[in-house]
Design brief:
By secondary structure, the chain is an alpha+beta fold. The chain contains 2 helices and 4 strands; from the N terminus they run ααββββ. The protein is globular, with a radius of gyration of 11 Å.
Length: 75
């Protein structure tokens, strides 16, 4: 929540439901740490605990490299 607010990412029930659904899909495939790309937002989530580790706008991705993930979900 802190990272989402500090980066001024618009977070509403719509995006929350989409991300939650994507976490469900990643879990069904056995993912543990997933990168979820939805619209212009990138989210890294711990699938087992259903915790958002970090979130950022596409324009905030300086290096465009994500580490410590084992799956990606493109929405």
């Amino acid at each position: 929540e802190t990272r989402i607010k500090s980066r001024a990412i618009p977070w509403d029930t719509g995006i929350e439901k989409r991300i939650s659904s994507d976490i469900d899909a990643a879990e069904a495939k056995g993912a543990r740490e997933a990168l979820i790309l939805a619209d212009n937002i990138a989210v890294i989530a711990n699938v087992n605990s259903r915790t958002i580790i970090t979130a950022m706008y596409k324009s905030q991705m300086k290096e465009k490299i994500f580490t410590n993930i084992d799956s990606a979900v493109l929405v």
